[in-house]
């Protein structure tokens, strides 16, 4: 378990540090980058938020609040609190036309910074839990690596970076998004900022 949570945090740090991110969209408070490697597509959304970093961290690390701003989260329940920094959640997503609704079993690991300029981290990846096998009503999907890095800018503002790495399996959902809608990603980011502030 310790290894899984460490690898969760490490995978997010590794994704964030990859060279070759390309910026695809800039709004005032939201910037979106993408990164392609084989059949894996990653995106990064950077948001400027007018609240202290520790507040953003406490709001973003509690995934039961997520459906207040992210319409891709239909339900979210805690399956297991592993310890105070790790929780396993079951998440369901609304169905896309012609598809069953998707569900995910995810491990969310959170870390506070050890040094002043380091970010708060909330890392997410799919895990298998024998007590929550796939069910016929959902299409069980996988998150390779996702999460937030939250950097303090001043005592009343911070930069929130959201990362998500997806395989070609999730691509049909995102392809719709990336062509017409980095807009959907932007909308979610703006909802996130509104929720945090």
Automatic annotation (TrEMBL):
Residues 18-166 form the START domain. One of its GO terms (cellular component) is cytoplasm. It comes from the Eukaryota. PROSITE patterns: START. InterPro entries: START-like_dom_sf, START_lipid-bd_dom, START_lipid_transfer. One of its GO terms (molecular function) is lipid binding. Pfam families: START (PF01852). PANTHER family: PHOSPHATIDYLCHOLINE TRANSFER PROTEIN, START DOMAIN-CONTAINING PROTEIN. This is ACO12 thioesterase. It comes from Thinocorus orbignyianus. The gene is Acot12_1.
């Amino acid at each position: 378990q310790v290894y899984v949570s460490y690898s969760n945090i490490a995978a997010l740090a590794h994704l964030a540090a990859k060279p070759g991110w390309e910026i695809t969209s800039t709004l005032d408070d939201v910037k979106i980058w993408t990164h392609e490697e084989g059949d894996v597509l990653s995106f990064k959304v950077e948001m400027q938020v007018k609240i202290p970093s520790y507040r953003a961290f406490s709001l973003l690390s509690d995934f039961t609040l997520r459906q207040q701003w992210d319409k891709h989260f239909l339900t979210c329940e805690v399956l297991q609190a592993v310890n105070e920094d790790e929780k396993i959640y079951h998440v369901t997503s609304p169905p896309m036309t012609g598809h069953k609704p998707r569900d995910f079993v995810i491990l969310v690991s959170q870390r506070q910074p050890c040094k002043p300029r380091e970010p708060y981290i909330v890392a997410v990846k799919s895990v298998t839990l024998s007590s929550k096998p796939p069910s016929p009503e959902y299409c069980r999907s996988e998150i390779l690596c996702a999460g937030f890095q939250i950097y303090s800018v001043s005592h009343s503002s911070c930069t929130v970076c959201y990362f998500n790495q997806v395989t070609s399996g999730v691509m049909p959902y995102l392809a719709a998004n990336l062509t017409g809608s980095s807009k959907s990603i932007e909308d979610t980011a703006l909802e996130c900022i509104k929720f945090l502030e």
